[in-house]
Specification:
The complex is a heterodimer of chains A (about 160) and B (about 140).
Chain A lengths: L5 H20 L4 E3 L11 E10 L1 E10 H12 L8 H25 L4 E3 L3 E5 L11 E9 L2 E11 L3
Antiparallel strand pairs in A: 1-6, 2-3, 2-4, 2-5, 3-7, 6-7
Helix pairs in contact in A: 1-3, 2-3
Chain B lengths: L2 E6 L3 H10 L5 E6 L2 H11 L3 E5 L7 H9 L9 E5 L4 H10 L3 E4 L4 H9 L15 H5 L7
Parallel strand pairs in B: 1-2, 1-3, 3-4, 4-5
Helix pairs in contact in B: 2-3
The chains are: A alpha+beta (about 160), B alpha/beta (about 140).
Chain lengths: ~160, ~140
């Protein structure tokens, strides 16, 4: 089986992020360069959802906690001040799940069947994801107002 | 008599979104974080409709529906799947389980209310005050 072409992954990922932000949050996102995120005084958050099957990989969402707080408040109809820390983790995980779910569904429908894992979240300062050598990593940048979001798709071919 | 809606989702965020969506209606929203807990609540409370996630730990949505279908007292409860998965295979699996309807995440609150409103009659709460019309439009906004 052929690996999933880059342009296909890019289209699905961009459609997924735009769709989730627009439909669930009514927030407009623009494409941006996939450069590393600037420091956020509130720290960084990385969500991850894996997919396993004909294709194996992980969808990572990288953002500042400031954006995650806005996202959480918008999802739950709360002000930023009303948003508690555990709400941010859960809401960002669900956001990650929706993005990964869309990508997974599109990939499945095109002949690479796979299943999703449960989302997980890591928070801290100056976080960095490292993967093993035979994983192809692709980054997609987005901008929502003054905030930036980075989506990383790490794919390992199931044949390896 | 208030309508009982059971939301079964491992994401507290989704459960809160469901509770918020039906706040203005004469509804009682019950919650469970996985299929096993969902079955327990369903057996105790006999909800009028179940809003069910597909991928969950402990017991997933498909397995919960299978157990519901095998229980004479619970099999008539309508199930609406709320899932981030829209692959043809997943939709076919949901159809084969006999779920009443499905809604793909992300979804708008109005769409959720509309789907549930097809199954049960949603009466506004007597004291409920209607929100501003702009809320229903949900136009994409630009963050500062």
């Amino acid at each position: 089986m052929q690996p999933i072409p880059n342009e296909v992954i890019e289209r699905f990922t961009r459609d997924a992020v735009r769709g989730v932000f627009n439909k669930m949050l009514a927030i407009e996102v623009m494409d941006d360069r996939p450069t590393p995120l600037a420091a956020d005084p509130a720290g960084h958050i990385i969500g991850s959802v894996g997919f396993i099957g004909q294709t194996i990989g992980i969808v990572y969402l990288h953002a500042g906690v400031s954006l995650a707080r806005v996202v959480t408040g918008t999802m739950l109809g709360l002000t930023a001040a009303e948003v508690e820390d555990d709400m941010i983790n859960d809401a960002f995980g669900e956001l990650n799940n929706m993005v990964a779910g869309y990508v997974k569904s599109q990939v499945c429908d095109r002949g690479w069947p796979c299943e999703l894992t449960i989302p997980s979240i890591v928070r801290g300062n100056e976080l960095q994801v490292e993967t093993v050598a035979d994983v192809k990593r692709t980054f997609f940048g987005f901008r929502a107002g003054e905030h930036r979001l980075l989506v990383e798709i790490a794919i390992k071919d199931a044949r390896h | 008599m208030s309508i009982k809606i059971l939301t079964v989702d491992d994401s507290k965020t989704v459960r809160l979104i469901v509770a918020k969506a039906f706040k203005k209606f004469d509804c009682i929203v019950l919650e469970a974080a996985n299929g096993a807990d969902g079955l327990t609540v369903a057996a105790l409370e006999k909800p009028d409709v179940i809003l069910l996630d597909y991928t969950m730990p402990v017991l997933d949505g498909a397995d919960m529906v299978t157990v519901l279908n095998s229980d004479p007292e619970l099999k008539t409860i309508p199930v609406v799947m709320l899932t981030a998965l829209s692959a043809r295979e997943t939709l076919a699996r949901m159809a084969s389980l006999g779920v009443r309807d499905y809604l793909i995440k992300p979804f708008k609150e109005d769409a959720l209310i509309e789907r549930v409103g097809r199954i049960v009659t949603l009466n506004p709460k007597a004291q409920a005050t209607p929100g501003p019309a702009a809320e229903a439009l949900e136009l994409p906004r630009k963050l500062p």
